[in-house]
Amino acid sequence: MYKFKQFFQLLKLKAYSFLGLVWAKRFQAKTIHLNGRKFRITDSASFVAMYLDIFGHEGYKFETQKVEPYIIDCGANIGLSLVYFNQLYPNAKIIAFEPDPKLFDICKSNTTYFEEQLRLYPYALWNEETTLYFESEGADAGRVEKEKIENEEIASTKNLTQNLIEVKAVRLQKYLNQRIDLLKIDIEGAEVTVLEDCVDSLHWVGNLFVEFHSFENSPQRLGQLLSILENAGFRYYIRSEGVWSKNPFVCRDLAAGMDIQLGIWAYRAI
Asked: Are 79 and 110 in contact (CB under 8 A)?
């Protein structure tokens, strides 16, 4: 049923060239055409979902009178959000982070035509400059861990494999030093840790999107996240982003090890 829904959404958008991707095998790299340019993808299913969210629903759309708005994208993946931002505001200045080495290379390839306006870094984000351990899922669900997990049983409880790679991590806080029109954060579970480190700099941010991830067997930190936003003067809108349970008291469904996944749009009240 979900795939049929995606199919008809693509039809409505007249994105006919993407219709075949709805039923394509997962985790197979392809080169497609997006906005008349070649665009590399790693997984058809995740691309379709992202395309519908970003270009269909326009979840990252924001308004500004600036000719050159300033955008920071934390978790750029294959660059689909960056292409959207460039389409929305062709003169926007963008800083983006993507720690997955394979996705970083693809993202860089997909954004070469506006590379002069883009600074793309192969870093994870954390509350200190350090080395973290990254697990790549191959599409849109990679995540970082503070320590390498050697025990298979512990890794299993955290819905991780032991195939982790080392990545450099930097503080987002040091980049929040001027007016930011949009800060997008989709970093698969590190969002609260990073935002806690940024509380003294969030006054620079006009609009903030954060995807909140709650992993089973880990503390839920939604209250902390919302407190950070409220204390920084934001109002917010919250929407479920993929985890939905019909009878939560009886059975709580999981998606990629998560029992909660929320999209949170934080904005300044007029």
From this structure: yes
Going by DSSP bridges, is the β-strand pair 130-135/165-171 parallel, antiparallel, or unpaired?
antiparallel
pTM for the predicted model, two decimal places: 0.92
Q: Residue 205 and residue 89: Cα distance in Å, rounded?
A: 18
- Cα 130 off chain centre by: 21
d(CA 224, CA 216) in angstroms, rounded, equals 17
Rounded to 5°, the CA angle 239-245-246 comes to 115
pLDDT tier at 178, thresholds 50, 70, 90 = very high
pLDDT tier for residue 140 given thresholds of 50, 70 and 90: low
Which CATH entry fits the domain spanning 58-245+255-268: 3.40.50.150, 3.40.120.10, 3.40.50.720, 3.40.640.10? 3.40.50.150
Cα separation, 268 vs 263, whole angstroms: 17
Q: Report the first-to-last Cα separation within the chain, whole angstroms.
A: 40
Those residues with Cβ within 8 angstroms of residue 68's Cβ, 6 or more apart along the chain or in another chain: 89, 91, 92, 93
Q: 14 CB contacts (<8 Å, ≥6 apart)? A: none
